[in-house]
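User: Here's a chain of 497 residues. Predict its fold as tokens.
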Amino acid sequence: MGVRDAFGRVRTALTERYFAAIRRLRRVENRERREFRGWLEHTSNVTSLSVILFVPLLIALVTLLSNTLQQVSFLLFPPLASGTYTLFSDPEGEYAAPKRFVGGLTVGALCGWAALEVAARGVYHVSPASMEVHAGAAALSIAFTGVAVWALSLELPTAFSTALLVLITGVPGSGSGSPLAYVVGVFLSSSLVVLVFLVWREEFYERRARYLYQTTGADDRVLVPMRGDHPWRTALFGARLAAAHSAGKVVLLDIVDDEAVAEAERNALRHDTAGEDIENAASEAELRAASESARVLDADADRIRTKVGVPCEVVIAVDDGANPAGTVLDAADRTGCDLVVTPYEAVRGRASAFLRSLFGSDTDVVAFRSVNETERWRRTLVPVRKAGDAAHAMVDYAERLAGDGGTISLCTCIGSERERRRAERMLANLAETVRAPCETRVSRSELARFLKRNQSSHDVVFIGASDDRSAASRILSPPTFRRVTELDTDVAVVHKA
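Assistant: Prediction complete.
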């Protein structure tokens, strides 16, 4: 019996260790998946990954075609590889137009062929098939190509590669076929590459916000703690965010510090009898307070349903006084909400302990500071420090508020002119994912000064919560949202989990 018990204990211990290891592996897997998903929210990473995947596959396909059809020359590979890299690495760039890609490569090959004929027959008086590469032919091919691509608006760097490579197609022993076969091969292979590129760009790259960015298909269900000085406008702001998605809904949360009062308030919302409420409430005064609070919440929910047209529910929670942020997060979990929109709270210029706890959670949070009477936020200003999931979240929220008739202003501030091109490219990548009218601005001024100067022309300013910054960085340069009290427009501070 003792041996059997010992064996059972060992088996139980091993089973517990096994399941504990499985749980740890799943946590690691989930963390790695989230990090990889965040990595893909950088457009430069998406294009780099696409280059690694598609350029080798396309070149392999052309190689297979070359081995199958003897007319297709291996001299296609150098210009085709570099041109394919140009397409996928900069899909919205100057050289990413299909007409320019196919036309430039083909015109370059035609110009090289023409230069070969002119040099062989007009200068050296020999057959092109028997002619070796000469400096004159090379110069003519480059000159012809430069004039042709400029006149036809088909400027493409790799066009000059095809122009030069066609000169050796007729060299004895090269095994590269005739110039005509080379030109035809350039046209067909470049057309194949462009076809794959167009499908990739139209079906994936231009829709990457839908497939890769986490806020696009999420943050439909919004929880609003009804606290602070302007709970109604905060609730309305959250409702505007939720209404952009067909599955959106709003949950208004009232937190009370007594279970009896909370139960009385719930009963009032369910329109139960007064007698039942009195039994649950500590006194008639508490009952009246609970009934009044429930009436206000119910009225706010009705106004949101009527004004915004989004489903709205009311939830009552009990707070023990120790951790109100935990109560909010627990309510969000129980009601299936994936975004918390709460009034901005500050103590001596710093975010309150309640707000800091929410910002440290695994739930998306928007802290809204309302200073105006506006109930529509169509003109949004989004300052961006760097690309990433937080930037895409702010852009997504701005687009929800803009709707059909609004505008979005993306901006960033730089310290020197050397940073301008990188900043412009970052903003352009963000703007490409937006359907609403969107402008981008790069400024040399300090961000707080820039916001104060431009706040009057916008209804709301979105600011990141700077969750990814180190403690040392925060000490040297305090987060921008700490200075929101200096702005005279509505501000939304975004924490992306």
